[in-house]
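Entry 14. Structure prediction run on the chain below.
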Amino acid sequence: MAVVKVILLSDLQSLGQRGDVVQTKVGYARNYLIPQGLAVQATASATKWFSEQREKFDARSANELEAATQIASLLDGVEITIAKRVGETETLYGSVTATEVSEALEAKGHTVDRRQVDLGGGVKSLGEHDVRILLHSSVTAIVKLTVEAEE
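Output returned:
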C-alpha cells in the first residue's frame, strides 16, 4: 500500500489539525486533499513554506473560530419543524435529510451549508430531535428539530 506524507492546511475531523504532517494513501491525497486545497505534499520546500505562513494561517483560523462562535450563539436553541409523509404505523417514508434541515434553517434566516448538518444516524421517526450543526472543528450548535406528520 503506497502512502504519502502531507501537511494539512485545514482541520479535518478524520485526519488531524491544521499544520499536522500525516500519512495518507496516495490516491486520497492526490484525488481529494490536494485538489481541494486541504493539504500539500510534505516536501522540504512545502514544510519551509508552511512554517513561514503559519502566522497567517493561525490568524485566519482565529477569525474563523470567532465567526463560528457568533453563529453558534445565534443557532443554539433554534427550533425548526419539518412535515414528512408517514405510514399507518406513524413511521416515516424515508428520513429527514441534511438538505431539508438546511432549507428549514434558511427559512428562519440562518444560512447553514447542508454539509455542516450532522444528523447522527439519521432522523427516521416523528417527534423532537437534537441536530448538531458543525460550524468549526471546535464549535457545534444544537438545533431542535420537530418532525410532524404531513397532512
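Residues 94 and 147 are 12 Å apart (CA to CA).
Filed with the rest of this week's runs.
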